[in-house]
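Table S2 (text version). Query chain:
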Amino acid sequence: MAAQDLPGRIRVNGDALVVGVDGSDESDRALRWAAATARKRQEPLRVVHGFAPLPGFYGGGLPALTKAYEALVKASDELVADGIRIAREVGGPELAITAEKPTEPGPVALIEASRRARAVVLGCSGTGGFEGMLVGSTTVEVAAHAHCPVVVVRGRAEPDGPVVVGLDGSATSDRALATAFDEASWRQTGLVAVHAWADADAGLPARWSEIERDEQRLLAEQLAGWQEKYPDVRIERVLVRDRPRHQLLSWSTRAQLVVVGSRGRGGFSGLLLGSTSQALIHHAQCPVMVVRADEAT
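Corresponding structure-token output:
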């Protein structure tokens, strides 16, 4: 099913917020979060459900297979309709909602949709995950390959908490910082800039004070000029000798959103998601936004 306009609405391309739906409880929660966010930001919401039955399932002229396929199509249509209904309940009559049901697997459909989105919103797991996995396979794959930021909705809602961003001086965290300032500004809340450097990488204790001065300078350089661009955002700087994932997971208990780059300066070459972003999308106590440095490509 191609993208469709709902009655009385005009489809808007570009800065839509995309949300992936699969009928799971986690997906419904992400849908509600996305609809509320789109309403507050006055931007359109695009509901996407990838529909890809097994190849060859439909065909051969067998009535049983035909009926089974038609049942799958009906269930998929109902799933999308339920998603639209939930989004309308949360977003109200003024929220512009469109729906897409591309005939592709969920990850492929969402990664393609991310080319025309401000962000993609997903639940922390779903019907495509494997038992025992903390985060569904679709969520991990989209977070690693999307062309825009990906929000994984998990944990509890903390509407009065700050936006927290993890910084390490890398190009990816530069982009995460820009995104975090935008998020803090429209949410009218403070921004906590967390720069954690791990003692395991710091060498002898005698050098820790020297390394800390270097890290302080790195943090100051990364934040330079941002307060002038966003005078309405109060910035709290946190510089601590600790593992980044430990600090950010701790801050997630009081934040309304944690923003992190997909892979920082300490990551291994070739990994699209670093250990810190992986830890957050699996264990954070609030929604997590993963930002890539090369999203524009």
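Notes on Table S2: The chain has two domains: 4-153, 163-291. The two ends are 27 Å apart (CA to CA).
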